[in-house]
Amino acid sequence: MTSLLEKITSLRSQFICELREAVSSKDLEALKVKYLGKKGPIQALMLELKHASPEERPQAGKLINDLKEEFLSHCDHSLHRVKQREMAAAFQQEWLDATLPGRKQFLGRAHPISQMLQRILDILIGMGFSVQLGPDVDTDYYNFEGLNFAADHPARDMQDTFYLGKNRLLRTHTSNVQVHAMEKFKPPIRIAAPGRAFRNEDISARSHVFFHQIEGFYIDKHVTFADLLSTMEEFLHKLLGAEVKTRFRPSYFPFVEPGMEVDVHCTACKGSGCRLCKHTGWLEILGAGMIHPNVLMKGRIDPEEYSGYAWGMGLERLAILQYDIPDIRLFTENDMRFLSQFP
Ligand code: DAH
Fold first, then answer.
1. How do residues 8-29 score in pLDDT, each as one tens digit?
2. Distance between CA 211 and CA 227 in Å, rounded?
3. CA-nearest residue, atom 4 of ligand 1
4. CA torsion angle for 152, 155, 158, 164 (degrees, to 10)?
5. Ligand 1 centroid to 194 CA: how many Å?
6. Overall pTM surpassing 0.85 (yes/no)
7. How many A from CA of 229 to the centre of ligand 1?
8. For residue 48, what is the DSSP state?
9. Structure confidence by residue, pLDDT tens digits, 248-268
10. Nearest residue CA, atom 8 of ligand 1?
11. I need a surface site. Which of 9, 228, 298, 336 has the fewest CB within 10 A?
């Protein structure tokens, strides 16, 4: 009995010592397991009870049980206290100010050129055109020869065209899609072909080495110049408003005959003359014409039976005119101050 009492006393002082050193809930949980677990000293004492005499056993058992209860209550008491302290510290750290205004989320939006293109495609699809894409990298034939460019036409000159190899080039206009389409489809053909075009020019406020165009063309029996005029009128009215005034001027492109350029009343000054329209009141907006018989023939379409019209326009130019943008380079600089102005 005395030996048990001694053991209890020493175990208690050892426990108290360790309890003082336990600072975190983790330490305390470990302490609890160490002393009260199956392999702990209390359990060992319980096993020793077997050797005690029957008269001593109840008293000894009670002493050990009391010690167990004492340790347990110490542990639980400290755990409760430490856990509260830990929680308070965590709350301090994760402190949240519910009155702070939220962070502004910026929604992505389409680039002004994409917006312009979408509007144009919506209109043209509504007028019966279907969308076809052509290659950015093409051959001399599709970009020039198939479009009736004479062998010595200046547009083939190295200063305008990016050549990628002997017979590879970056298309200088989306008109190449006309030649591809005539090879692929039989009339009636009614196509809108948007895409990039490339020209070897100095980059400035007005011109860039790459830009976007959209080409439209219609080939069928009995397509006339009057059809072209009315289609252009309708298209431009839908794009720029019913009140917009149009002007058709004769012009030359190798792949159309007759060819013309179309002007609209200046979108900024409505025709009275300003910086944007260089005080003419008019803005040139697209090139158009009746598809040249040579072009139809190269596309294996009989010009005696079929005729067609075509037009092409630059999307950057349209966007510049519509929004009065001072510099074409803004479209490719990814400056949020510019881009966020097009909701
Ligand atoms: N391809 C011409 C250019 O890039 C634009 C053009 C003019 C297209 C007249 C046409 C057209 O289809 O008929 O300058």
1. 888 889 989 988 998 889 989 9
2. 28
3. 173
4. -110
5. 13
6. no
7. 15
8. H
9. 999 999 999 999 999 988 877
10. 312
11. 336
